[in-house]
Design a protein that fits this description.
Elements lengths: L11 E3 L6 H8 L4 H6 L13 E3 H14 L5 H7 L8 H8 L3 H11 L7 E8 L2 E8 L8 H19 L7 E3 L8 H8 L3 E2 L5 E6 L12 H12 L11 H12 L7 H7 L4 H10 L4 H19 L4 H8 L4 H12 L3 H9 L2
Parallel strand pairs: 5-6
Antiparallel strand pairs: 1-2, 3-4, 4-7, 5-7
Helix pairs in contact: 1-4, 4-7, 5-6, 5-9, 10-13, 14-15
């Protein structure tokens, strides 16, 4: 497929990123319908997110609401109302890691598979360490609301890994003070400093050794191998089916692992993608089923992952749905198939 066959896709972000927007607007008693319309964001996505949105559109939307309604902490409030963000296999890697340091190093390595907007990394600060976030494209004041939202997401992820009693030593924000500083400090349970070189969550260096209760060394190795195989992306000369297979493997277990979302990533309409796949005698459904089968076999053969966790990782509604699909393909239930492999 040549570059002239489709336009280059813009930087995209999972529409789940806007969960919490409606609740934040309700808390502030503001009506954001006109701003949503101005930026072409369907209101239903605030309740039932689906697919991707252009990242610049989302960032400008959040900044516009903050400015128009004089609520400088809007992005922060959106983040407060969000559930923990799911990054598919990357979230699994973090939960399976032996300690916090290992989990955070995984972000730096694998985040390019899920977001091109920023880089994340660990930086030593005397007896402390900072999980830093830096924009790939330098922006000092624009996009402030989206950066605040992302920092809240990162903080929530750390709380999941470290436990509800954990708190950072400080929060660094790379923009001028916005709103009441105490609002931030009450939420983060830590001092907040503005106008810093980068956004960061600062904590004690010894926290890097904090064990993660859901760690599983064998399963971690398998998931890391899966993700590492995806880091090189796909060859521009690959056919459309191979590209679709790549994106499916990246997004297994997320709500963006579907025809509409993958079409967006390829800068195609769903109808165009169906047509191109048909030329190669494929359908999106057949490729999704094939990838799920391949990954299921890898995990059943090489780990003791529970069927509930595997079903979730593969994007099935529940373990029963996964078991039915597996039995239809292999003639036996997944737990029975696993036992036959262990006898070999």
């Amino acid at each position: 497929m040549t570059t002239t066959e489709r336009t280059k896709a813009p930087l995209l972000i999972d529409s789940h990123y806007l969960l919490g927007t409606l609740e934040a607007a309700q808390e502030l008693d503001i009506n954001i319908d006109e701003v949503l319309d101005q930026y072409g964001i369907p209101p239903k996505l605030l309740v039932e997110p689906e697919g991707f949105l252009a990242f610049t559109k989302v960032a400008r939307f959040l900044d516009k609401v903050a400015k128009e309604f004089d609520c400088p902490q809007f992005g922060f409030l959106v983040g407060k109302h969000q559930p923990p963000f799911n990054l598919g296999l990357l979230s699994q890697v973090m939960k399976l890691s032996p300690n916090l340091g290992s989990a955070l190093n995984s972000i730096d390595k694998y985040i390019p598979l899920y977001s091109q907007a920023a880089t994340w990394g660990l930086q030593s600060l005397d007896d402390k360490v900072a999980l830093t976030r830096r924009d790939r494209i330098g922006r000092k004041e624009s996009g402030v609301q989206s950066r605040n939202l992302t920092m809240v997401q990162a903080f929530k992820a750390l709380k999941v890994l470290c436990g509800p009693q954990w708190a950072p030593s400080a929060i660094y924000l790379a923009h001028r003070p916005l709103g009441n500083k105490r609002t931030y400090e009450h939420f983060y349970k830590a001092p907040v400093y503005f106008d810093r070189e980068y956004d960061a969550i600062v904590f004690q260096e010894e926290d890097l050794k904090r064990p993660i209760v859901t760690a599983d060394a064998r399963l971690l190795e398998i998931v890391q191998s899966h993700l590492s195989s995806l880091l090189d992306g796909f060859n521009p000369d690959d056919d459309i089916a191979t590209e679709v297979r790549y994106h499916i493997r990246c997004r297994l277990g997320t709500r963006t692992c579907n025809l509409d979302s993958i079409s967006q990533l390829l800068a195609l309409s769903p109808r165009s993608l169906k047509r191109k796949l048909a030329k190669h005698h494929y359908t999106f459904t057949s490729i999704l089923a094939s990838v799920r089968q391949e990954v299921a076999v890898e995990y059943l053969r090489d780990s003791q992952i529970s069927l509930i966790d595997l079903a979730d990782m593969l994007g099935y509604q529940n373990a029963s749905a996964f078991s039915r699909a597996f039995k239809n393909s292999f003639g036996m239930a997944p737990d029975h198939w696993r036992k036959t492999q262990s006898k070999r």
